[in-house]
Design brief:
By secondary structure, this protein is an alpha/beta fold. Helices cover 54% and strands 14% of the residues. It contains ten helices and eight strands. It has helices at 15-28, 44-48, 72-88, 93-106, 112-126, 141-175, 190-211, 223-238, 262-284, 302-311; strands at 4-9, 33-37, 57-58, 65-69, 133-137, 213-219, 243-251, 289-294. The protein has an eight-stranded mixed sheet with strand order 3-4-2-5-1-6-7-8, sandwiched between helices. It is elongated, with a radius of gyration of 24 Å.
Amino acid sequence: MARFTFFGGKGGVGKTTVSAAYGLRCANAGLKTLLVSTDPAHSTSDVFGQQFGDDPQPVEGCDGLYAMEIDPEEEVEEHLMDVRRTMSEQVSEVVVKEMDRQIELAHQTPGAHEAALFDRFIQVMRESDDYDRVVFDTSPTGGTLRLLALPEFLGEWTDRLLEKRRESMRLYDMAAVGGKEPEKTAEDDPIIEHLRSRKEKFEFAARTLREDAAFYLVLNPDELSVRETSRTIETLRSYDLSVTGLVMNKVTPSPEDHEEGRGASYLRNRVATERERIDYVRGEFDVPLVAVIESRTTEITGDALEAVAAGLDVAVDD
């Protein structure tokens, strides 16, 4: 059984509820479990009625369950400051001033959130030895896919930077004349050391995602959700990441047989349409539908969350 479990899907399908229920199910099975939210909406605190922060905290009333919420904005700020600290040791004061301006602009750069979250995401995986399971409630599909694509993309990018930096060091070496030692060498160059560290981090992430992670997609019984799920499965496969199962959430319950009137008629039509879509997913998708969760009239917290957890047929065993 993979130690890391990811729940992804289109925005609004109920990923937080499903991942919280799965985390609770793991904890109820006696597994020390960490639930990690990378969703900017931070709904995990709402589900458990308890405020979570950037560090794991015990979930009150749930033995063995811990939770944390990663703030994307704080991660971007810390990530860019780390870049500044690293580079400012290598360049002149004039360049540092220009770099500060570029870092300020980089806050709004496409991909800045993904890169920052990716670093934090790897840190959580590396520091999670105390837990039997780590469950990730990820941001909506587009952001998640970009995040999962980063190890390969950034690994290649880092290789090119290393090559360029080594060439630069080689030119320093050639410039040393008259038996003098070169001012800089590849062996003690902090930038090369930093790039090597980044490369090792990306390799760890890529290896862990492929060998010790399971991916579940949450969807609703509507046309858009079904189509996006199909595309997401194919996209993940293009990254050599296979989806373990699908969770159909927010399924309309059937009215009782004796119920009549417009409301009951509407519900019967809706239920019939949703059943066709569920049958379609079961018949046409080559990924198993592992759970079907009905909509509830109350918020999914407390006993309702326990009920969802009990009915969530997603394996927790070793």
